[in-house]
Write a structure and sequence with these properties.
The chain is α/β, with parallel strands linked by helices. Helices cover 36% and strands 16% of the residues. Helix 2 links the parallel strand 2 and strand 3.
Length: 80
């Protein structure tokens, strides 16, 4: 990873062993934009993701919504 620039993280919210995608994001560094993906519609998850300045997408993903966000990253536009 040190040799490559990371432009964006796509993170599933629920990971193994009680960890979350937000935990992984924190390990990578808070300066990397991320999209958190989950099928869980719990309002607390939405608030947690948004309070960290990240974007939340629900499963099943809408391809156009994901594509739009990816194009914004590619163009250098913030998704936060």
């Amino acid at each position: 990873l040190a040799q490559h620039r990371v432009d964006l993280l796509l993170l599933d919210y629920h990971l193994d062993f009680g960890t979350t995608g937000l935990d992984a994001w924190r390990r990578f560094g808070l300066d990397i934009p991320a999209i958190v993906i989950t099928a869980d519609r719990d309002e607390a998850i939405r608030r947690e993701v948004e309070s960290n300045g990240l974007t939340l997408l629900h499963k099943p993903l809408r391809p156009l919504a994901l594509r739009s966000l990816l194009r914004r990253v590619e163009a250098g536009t913030s998704i936060r």
